[in-house]
Amino acid sequence: MPSPGHARWRLDIAYDGSGFHGWARQPGVRTVESVITDALTTITAATTRVDVTCAGRTDAGVHARGQVAHVDLPDGEGARSEQTLGEPTLLRRLQGVLPDDVAVTAATRVSADFDARFSAVWRRYAYRIADSYAARDPLRRTDVLEHPRSLDLEAMNVAAGSLLGEHDFAAFCRARVGGTTIRRILDCAWSRDGAGRAVLDIRADAFCHSMVRSVVGALIAVGDGRREPDWVGEILDRGERDPGVRVMPAHGLTLEEVGYPPPQEWAARQEVTRVLRGESAEDDPALTGNDRSR
Amino acid sequence: MPSPGHARWRLDIAYDGSGFHGWARQPGVRTVESVITDALTTITAATTRVDVTCAGRTDAGVHARGQVAHVDLPDGEGARSEQTLGEPTLLRRLQGVLPDDVAVTAATRVSADFDARFSAVWRRYAYRIADSYAARDPLRRTDVLEHPRSLDLEAMNVAAGSLLGEHDFAAFCRARVGGTTIRRILDCAWSRDGAGRAVLDIRADAFCHSMVRSVVGALIAVGDGRREPDWVGEILDRGERDPGVRVMPAHGLTLEEVGYPPPQEWAARQEVTRVLRGESAEDDPALTGNDRSR
């Protein structure tokens, strides 16, 4: 709950992950959380560090167009302007202090029921691959992986189908202490975008650490013809990491969107999520160690 | 005409213009032409420099997704492999030596009638602007201009309409010695892309130096409400550069596509273009001076 004299804000955030050691604050490295926390602390003239909670703690090098965070900012007499902090003011001040690889694209006052992480019902990521000479675009080399062979999207989509629904994704998650690796995948399909790139659109209630990049690694083995589509479902069923599954590079991955229920369900959803996955998040760096580079 | 033992190739080229001082080779600076010439010279083991002719000599900082060039490469006994140089081989070798901000997306053997510059019938450019917080995307900051106010595309399109057709664009061109500033604009319209960015799609038989960026500068004055739509047509009619027209930054501009007639018309089109605009191209650095940075 926000402290007295504070109001809760939802921030929509986009970033080029190339220059960040992921979202989560860690000593001695540049992270998105640190940069945003510092910007908010500066513009609100807060005397203590402003805590920022996000929906998806992206790994080093992973990008975002639709990251969502919440933050409690001093309001009324607590704000520098001694006036109620408005959305245009907050956005303008943030743009003035944020570096050009992070943008806050929207700022919305929300009720204290909103929790960017625990109120969320799904996260949607995209993984982009240029698998032909014609699809190569140096302007997109920051967020598109180049792959030397043409991928068979039809075979990849057969394999992707076996991941849909609720499963224990231990085979595609980094080992961790505590918590569950059970997740529900709502969408998982490859298509070609207008420029001929292969794009995986994957949506789930939540993802564990490195899960999307492991799933992509398994599907690419199918798309390259090195494995049959059935192989992906077999790995899932075995529940153990398979040495044939490469964890794909971070730079092809972008957090595109986070889904929330209507405001009257924010509080209830928080409770459900906390029970399902435990108060400590699945991808808390304290649980997974400091090496978040892959 | 290609020398004996040489074959003509069409190369389709994409680049991030950020790291280049434009297309055209100039002493002491990194240009796209130099990088491609060096790559071709290396992979064909040519003893003299390979000359590359492009459709649109982009200025410093301007990008391309659909640049087209032609080049005459040693064939048969002249080629390193002592075999006929095939398209996959050429593409693979080029990719092996080109830096990651340039890509050759296609290589096609063409008849000697094809001239990338003089056979072209139109060039299409896009200018992209993020004019709202919501449209800001750090992953696209290399090729999208950020503009602090929301643009009125409807007013801009009224103004853009006055530029359509054949006119003397002296008011939007840098002064140059010789040649004509008469051009025919085939398309000139703003729209919103899927991410909410304002995109100018502009197509003409050819453009003179800095023409698109001057046109965008004039249209933005209208989109901001500082000028009435009629003002753009008035500038065109006066035929003199207007101090109210800003030459917009290069990084929002991308050469998207070049149009060619069917092969049987390549030779005739070359002749027409040479007569229309003179053997020396409209944007030859030798005629416009070395400062191509704006």
Provide the gyration radius of chain A in Å.
20 Å
Principal-axes geometry of chain A comes out as globular
* Share of β-strand residues of chain A: 25-35%
Name of the CATH homologous superfamily of the largest domain in chain A: Pseudouridine synthase I, catalytic domain, N-terminal subdomain
Helix and strand element order of chain A:
EHEEHEEEHEEEHHEHH
The CATH class of the largest domain in chain A: Alpha Beta
CATH fold topology of the largest domain in chain A: Alpha-Beta Plaits
CA(first)-CA(last) distance of chain A = 34 Å
Structural class based on helices, strands and sheet pairing of chain A: alpha+beta
Characteristic key phrases:
homodimer; 294 residues; alpha+beta; Alpha-Beta Plaits; 10-stranded mixed β-sheet; 7 helices; 10 strands
Structural description of this entry:
The structure is a homodimer of 294-residue chains. Helices cover 24% and strands 25% of the residues of chain A. Chain A is of the alpha+beta class and 294 residues long. Chain A has helices at 32-44, 87-97, 153-161, 211-223, 230-238, 266-277, 285-288; strands at residues 6-15, 52-54, 63-74, 102-110, 122-130, 145-146, 165-168, 182-192, 198-204, 253-259. The first copy, chain A, folds into two domains: 6-119 and 261-288, Alpha-Beta Plaits (2-Layer Sandwich); 122-256, Pseudouridine synthase I, catalytic domain, C-terminal subdomain (Alpha-Beta Plaits, 2-Layer Sandwich). Chains A and B meet through strand 1 and strand 4 of A and strand 1 and strand 4 of B.
